[in-house]
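Notebook entry, structure prediction.
Reason for the run: the old model in the group folder had no record of what sequence produced it. Starting over properly, with the input documented here first.
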Amino acid sequence: MPIIQSAWWIVYYIASDGEPRYLLIKRHALSGKIERVAPKGKIQGTEEVTKAALREVSEETGIPVNQMRIKNQLGTTQLRNTENQKGQMDKDVTYFLMEYAGNPDFVKIEHAEGYIGIHKRCTLNEVLALIYYQDIRELIRKSYSLIKDGQKNQNIKKDFIDKLG
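New structure, fully documented this time:
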């Protein structure tokens, strides 16, 4: 069986209080239960993974491509169906951190691929409580640190420029 190339995106925006908020999709899992996941999708043919990231998130959430910025590649994993479970395929997954620069009130979910809604304003603790998969929770923690480090660096840069001015 071929290995599917896939990507997941940890999508966030900065709320008015300066804290990151995450966008999670609600969907029906194969088990029939409702689960929360990050937007994800398959890379098509020879498509660049970053272009696939922007395309898939835009398709799944309605966010215009020009309102998203890929910030970091967070890591990769290999998912293998060693137990031959029905509906499970072998995948190589690349994880990205993506910043949304628009208004979260305008984010919507198209009822496709089993998606039934979106959480638009998840704090770090809410995401960690809602996400079932341990590896995704670790990526969320990593993303939070990267976002906060980036904010700190921006503040240092701003202070330096202000002192020069």
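Summary: The domain at 4-164 is CATH 3.90.79.10 (Nucleoside Triphosphate Pyrophosphohydrolase).
The old model has been moved to the deprecated folder.
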